[in-house]
Amino acid sequence: MARKEDSPRPRGKSTRAIHAALDKTIHGEVSIPIFESSTFSFPSAEEGAERFSGAKPGYLYTRMGNPTVNALEQTVNQLENGFAGIATASGMAATTSVYLSLLGQNEHIVESEVVYGPSRIVLETHLSRFGVHSTFVDTSDLRKTEAAQRENTRLVFIETPSNPTLSITDIKGTAEIAHRHGALLVVDNTMAGPYLQRPLDHGADIVIHSLTKYLNGHSDVIGGMIVSASQEIYKRIRKTVNLFGGVMDPLQAWLILRGVRTLGVRMERSQENAMRLAEFLKDHPKVAWVRYPGTADHPQHEIARKQMDGFGAMISFGVVNGLRGGMTFLNGLQLITRAVSLGGIESLIEHPASMTHAAIPLEERARVGISDELIRFSVGCEDFEDLREDLDQALSKIN
Ligand SMILES: *Cc1c(COP(=O)(O)O)cnc(C)c1O
Hints:
single chain; 399 residues; alpha/beta; Aspartate Aminotransferase, domain 2; Aspartate Aminotransferase, domain 1; seven-stranded mixed beta sheet; five-stranded mixed beta sheet; globular; binds pyridoxal-5'-phosphate
C-alpha cells in the first residue's frame, strides 16, 4: 500500500519507480531482500486459521503471496494508479490468466487484430475449444470496435501502440464502448509502459504487462503483471492465478525490482534516441517509409499525443527492395543486436514477417499492415551517433 504522503501532491513517476517497494523495510534495507521461502510459519494455530480465512493479513505459501513478489506488485500498481497488482511467471501468463478469469463458455471477446501473436493464438486455437468466441478488428477505428460488440461480449482487449505496426487505439473511446455494452476493457501496456501511458486513468479496467520488456529493461528476466482498477476484478483474477499456478518466483521479482528503479532514465534516453533516429530514417534514400507515433504523419498521432506522455522508443520502418533489402540491411548491422523482444537497454532489431509474425498467413499479414519489408526497431540507450552510424552503414549495403 502506498506510503502516507506528507503532501497531497502525488509523487512523480520516477520517484515511485525508485521508492514504491521500500515502504515496509525490516532492518532499514534499501534493496528488498529475496525471500526464498516456499512456506511461512504461523505463531499459533489460531493465527494460521485467521490468515487462511483472510481475517488477518500474513503470508501462507509462496504460490499465494511472497514479500519480494509483493514489493514488485506494489511498485507496478503504484506506477499504473491501480487497485492492486498480480505478478505472473511471464507476460503470457498474465494474458491467459485474464482470459481464464473473465471469459466462459459462449462468451465473447473483441481484440485488436494486431497484437502480440500468442495473445491471439491462445484464443483462436485453445480457448475456442472451451467455447470462447473471439473477434479481431482494427481497434484504431472505434466504429469497428463498436460494430463487433455482441450481447455476450465480456472483454475488449487492446494493445496500443500495437506490435509491430505501432497503430494507436483510443483508450478512453474504447472504454466507453466496452462499458456501454457491459464489457471490461483490458489494455496490454507493454509497448509503452507506465512511464508513458497509464490506461486505468483513461477508463480501462485492467492493464497487463510483459515485465520482460521496458519495466525490467535489461533483457535478462521473463515476467508479467496484471493491474486491476477495482477490488472486485482483482479478487477474481487473484483466485485464478493462485489456482492455476502461473506465479512469479522471488528471484525473478527481485531482478525486475532492480530493473524498474531506472525506468525513468531509460525511457527518457531511449525515447530521445528514437525521436532523432525516426527523423534520420525518414530522410534516408534507402528507407521507403517510417512509422513512429511521434511524427505528425502517423495516422493516429493526435490520439497518441492525447493519451501518452511521450511517443516511446519503438520505430517500424520499411527499407527499399522488400524482403531482400531487409535481409541485406539486417546482416549488415554491426552494433545493433539482431534479436526479437524489445524494451531492453540495448537496441534490438528484428524482421516480423520472417520471425515474430511468420506464423500469420501472408494475406492476413498484408491485410493488417505487416508488410515483408517491415523492420521493428526497439531503440536502446546507446549513444545516438553510434546508432545512427550503424544504421547508415547497414542501409548503404542495400543495392
Ligand atoms: C513480449 C510481449 C508479451 C508476452 O510476454 P512474455 O513475457 O514473453 O510472456 C505480451 N504482449 C506484448 C505486447 C509483448 O511484447
